[in-house]
Amino acid sequence: MEISQLRAFIAVAETGGFTSAASAMDVAPSSITRAVAKLEDSLGVRLFQRTTRSVSLTEAGVRFLNRIGPALSEIEAAVDHIGESGMSVSGQIRVAASVSFGQKVIAPALPAFANQYPDLRVELVLSDSVTDIIAERIDVAVRHGVLPDSSLIARRLSDVRYRLVAAPEFLKKTKKPNSPQDLSQHRCLTFPYASFKSQWRFSKKNREVLVPIEPFITISNPIALSTCVQSGMGYGLLADWLVNDDIKNGSLVEVLPSWNATGADVEQDAALWVVMPSRQFVPLKSNVFVSFLEGVI
After folding, report:
1. Does residue 280 have a pLDDT over 60?
2. pTM score, two decimals?
3. Topology given in CATH for the domain delimited by 162-263
4. Which of 83, 108, 146, 196 has the greatest number of beta carbons closer than 10 A?
């Protein structure tokens, strides 16, 4: 029994097929087929039910996957840990993030990261759905908001503050609000989510105000929403990691800066987190990427 056979078995189980497993591992399908066949011979059991249309785990395969998956992760982590003694950062790292955060924050920083670690290949997986980092073999994932309880390793990357912003040209043509309540009479651009689409929450010291809004434009993508705000279509309530640079360069102006603002039902403890698979040793490649992110956020 070889580790390469175990990797092939897990890849087939996770992807649901020999061809897809081969694609994920960047090898020929025949090598995956041979590796799994040798593993089944070594164990003396059939791990997969194979038909012309599908591949599924047998009962023995399910039991074996549940036991060998975490064990293989620990073995690979131990190998990474030993290999870090020479402090060489190489290989490949898979990073998952939301589409907007990946486009706005991570992608622009990748050239500098590549210059610092030229032997480490980065695969950036962008999706607005929550990625299963174990099944997708993700090394580092960036998550937003309050995290649910899980066995994953979570590390706080940054606090998040929402900022009420508008374009300078828009503010020249309209009366600037003096209080949050004034927004109910202005054009507001927002997200279609329940927390943002009908009310925004403003707080200052011990005072809290819920402001009803009538959305003029509703967009699910933060970058697209920010673009419309910059074009002068109205006010937007956007995360600081998205608009800080635009405020600095003058393409956006922060409005009511003395107030803390967020969606009506958004948790007060808004934050960005990095999440990694739960295992005893965190690979050096993951640590250096997280440290790099902390420097650019």
Report:
1. no
2. 0.69
3. D-Maltodextrin-Binding Protein; domain 2 (3.40.190)
4. 196
Give the 3-state secondary structure of residue 32. helix
Q: What is the largest CA-CA distance in the chain?
A: 78
- Starting at the earlier edge strand, list the strands of the sheet with 140-144: 120-126, 91-97, 140-144, 271-276, 153-159
Lowest model confidence (mean pLDDT) among 9-18, 111-120, 201-210, 276-285: 276-285
Residues 6+ apart with CB under 8 A from 57: 13, 47, 48, 49, 65
Beta bridge pairs of residue 155 = 274
Instruction: Round to whole Å and give the CA distance between 28 and 112.
Output: 34
**Tens digit of each residue's pLDDT (9 = 90 or more) over 103-141:** 999 999 999 999 999 999 999 999 998 888 877 889 999
3-83 and 162-263, same CATH topology: no
* Tokens, residue 83: 């290999």
For the domain made up of 87-159+270-296, the CATH class stated in words is alpha beta
What fold characterizes domain 3-83? Arc Repressor Mutant, subunit A (1.10.10)
